[in-house]
Design goal:
This is DUF4218 domain-containing protein. It holds the Pfam family DUF4218. It contains 9 helices and no strands. The protein has 226 residues and is mainly α. It has 3 domains: 67 residues; 40 residues, no CATH class; 59 residues, no CATH class.
Length: 226
């Protein structure tokens, strides 16, 4: 987005997204909620300079009250209702007979389950199991870890970023390890061993991000030598 938007617009959108990212994390410190409350007001003021008044409905205004909700009810990650609301929207579209909405939902849901199951055994037609991905740009799928096994096409000339800071390199390294299903058994093993040491959940998450890459590197090297 930095290359396609003005600096002011991009900064406001990044700050708005960062607010939700921090607010929806697994652990939120009470001392940070006051900062979130102050920052979201400034972010919305920046957005008011960019978007028309019709953009600011009750859902945008809701962001101001979210830090208070976290303070009263705890982490939002375990109370997030957006997936439930999306499912209710899907079920609402199943209603064709308003006199019997429950029956319409049940009949449509069973029909969808049956057609989805049958489509697993159909060849030569497009189904949810073989259709092209939504963000397919015509690239070729490569073999390897799931984090890199995507249909992608290079944008512009490929260059090696010079002088990458150590913290950014570690973040990229952890992103690959955390989002690779092939490595999940090793991460679960390390979590189990850490639990046996008596650490709490917050310490486990921090220790895993800090110590797991080096442990995994040594584990792979040891198995290679053997």
């Amino acid at each position: 987005m930095r290359g396609y938007l003005d600096k002011e617009i991009g900064t406001a959108l990044f700050e708005f997204g960062n607010f939700y990212q921090q607010l929806c994390s697994r652990t939120v410190k009470l001392s940070d909620l006051d900062k979130f409350q102050e920052n979201i007001v400034l972010v919305l003021c920046k957005l008011e300079k960019i978007f028309p008044p019709a953009f600011f409905d009750v859902m945008v205004h809701l962001a101001i009250h979210l830090p208070r909700e976290v303070r009263l009810g705890g982490s939002m990650q375990y109370r997030w209702m957006y997936p439930i609301e999306r499912l209710l929207g899907v079920l609402k579209r199943f209603v064709t007979n308003k006199a019997h909405p429950e029956g319409s939902i049940m009949e449509a849901y069973i029909s969808k389950e049956c057609t989805t199951f049958c489509s697993m055994y159909l060849d030569g037609i497009e189904t949810v199991f073989n259709r092209v991905e939504r963000n397919d740009d015509g690239g070729e799928r490569t073999l390897g870890l799931a984090a890199f096994n995507q249909n992608v096409r290079p944008f512009g000339r490929i260059q090696i970023a010079p002088n990458v800071p150590v913290n950014q390199r570690d973040m990229a390294h952890w992103f690959v390890l955390y989002n690779s299903p092939e490595i999940d058994p090793y991460r679960e093993y390390v979590i189990h061993m850490t639990l046996l040491e008596g650490d709490n959940t917050i310490d486990i998450a921090k220790r895993q991000r800090k110590e797991f890459p080096q442990w995994f590197k040594g584990h792979v090297r040891h198995r290679t030598l053997n």
